[in-house]
Design goal:
Elements lengths: L1 H8 L4 H22 L19 H20 L7 H31 L12 H8 L21 H20 L4 H25 L12 H17 L9 H20 L1 H22 L21 H10 L1 H19 L8 H28 L3 H16 L1
Helix pairs in contact: 2-3, 2-11, 2-12, 2-13, 3-6, 3-8, 3-10, 4-5, 4-6, 4-12, 4-13, 7-8, 7-10, 8-10, 9-10, 12-13
Length: 390
């Protein structure tokens, strides 16, 4: 009995761990990119590694979402009928929209109190309302901050809303056929390859920001996740070292290529990232899901670093939406950027910034994100009990 208890305690939700690492890497890209702008890194060995490149981590989120959401239809948790699709929409709305609505309220309050950063765009209630309603995306602007919102990472959250609205339609149109989904991914890859050839030969078009934010540029990763779920493969039998090594090589190679030519990196990167992230998802294919923590005791921090990444994955949506504006505000209000004079101080100030914003993220996670998911969980449990009794 004790052995079984230990086995359960040691189980890991590898998809949450992936999400945790992805959102922390996006945090590092934004914060390190800001803090390092004030120091001379020319010629330093780490210069290419601190080029802000959060792009591939967004794609990892998308392929995970495509896989996990499609898997719920494959496992019959949702059905492709009107009640099943409405139930799916209800659950995803509760998952994504409360934080998307809370975010502009929080940032608007901070802006009204003059707690802001000059590096963030001015708060525009109309634009933030468009974001909160997940309307067709507010276009990128060429000058200044690359997105027409006080919080630029929110664009991919809006993208997630659009994709989950389309997902049942895509599954219905393809009759949940793995081959049909693979054909869609293949068509997307051909389009991306054509774009890459055009950029390699002519240096144009410019991908960031105008092309990068488009749905078609990103949709291949969501579709690839759908295809992996429809394939119903068992977990890849190789060890974890191989997918981890592949991801590490992808990220390091991306950093060096981006330091040389950002546009070329963004043209080639989707072609390289798709198989690498697919390999990672195939290795993590598991039916185990870590329970959502709903108290300090449930965090189980004593389980060590993997558990901490797992918790970061559970809070990844709150971290992703809040980290950039809060970090920029903290750095501007405290003057932390002046302390950065080299690599050691860059690491120290990054850690201090993370520590400063963590309480707000944790409170948002518990009282907004988890709070609005709980009523649905209870209702779902009640329905399951009625079905069992019937």
């Amino acid at each position: 009995m004790a052995e079984r208890s230990n086995d359960i305690a040691d189980r890991r939700d590898y998809f949450l761990i992936m999400r945790g690492i992805a959102c922390l890497m996006v945090f590092l890209n934004h914060v390190v990119g800001l803090l390092s702008s004030g120091i001379d890194t020319k010629g330093a060995w780490y210069e290419p590694l601190i080029v802000p490149m959060g792009f591939p981590w967004v794609w990892l989120f998308l392929i995970l979402s495509g896989f996990l959401l499609t898997k719920q239809f494959v496992d019959r948790k949702f059905r492709l009928c009107l009640p099943g699709i409405l139930n799916f929409y209800e659950r995803r709305s509760r998952r994504l929209l409360p934080m998307l609505w809370f975010l502009p309220l929080l940032l608007g309050l901070l802006y009204a109190l003059n707690i802001r950063s000059p590096l963030l765009p001015a708060f525009s209630p109309f634009k933030e309302l468009q974001v909160a309603l997940a309307l067709p995306w507010v276009p990128y602007v060429e000058g200044g901050n690359p997105v027409a919102s006080v919080n630029s990472p929110v664009w991919s959250a809006v993208l997630e809303v659009h994709y989950f609205l389309l997902l049942p339609l895509i599954l219905w149109c393809t009759a949940m056929s793995c081959r049909a989904m693979q054909v869609l991914v293949g068509i997307w890859l051909i389009g991306i390859a054509g774009l890459a050839i055009q950029v390699a030969l002519h240096g144009s078009p410019t991908i960031f920001p105008m092309i990068y934010q488009q749905h078609l540029y990103n949709c291949g990763f969501m579709l690839a996740g759908c295809a992996l779920a429809l394939m119903k493969l068992p977990p890849c039998p190789c060890g974890w070292r191989w997918p981890i090594l592949a991801v590490a090589m992808l990220i390091v190679g991306t950093q060096y290529l981006a330091a040389y030519d950002l546009n070329l990196a963004l043209a080639l990167l989707p072609i390289a990232a798709l198989p690498v992230f697919s390999f990672l998802v195939m290795k993590g294919n598991s039916d185990y899901q870590s329970p959502m923590p709903n108290s300090i005791r449930a965090l189980h921090l004593e389980r060590g670093p993997l558990r901490w990444f797992e918790l970061a994955g559970a809070m990844s949506y709150s971290i992703y939406l809040l980290h950039k504006p809060l970090s920029y505000i903290v750095i501007a209000q405290t003057g932390l950027g002046r302390w950065v004079t080299g690599l050691p101080s860059l690491v120290a100030v990054t850690i201090l910034t993370a520590a400063a914003i963590t309480p707000i993220i944790l409170l948002s996670f518990v009282y907004v994100e988890v709070r609005f998911r709980r009523p649905l969980d209870r209702a779902s449990q009640a329905r399951q009990k009625r079905r069992a009794a019937g």
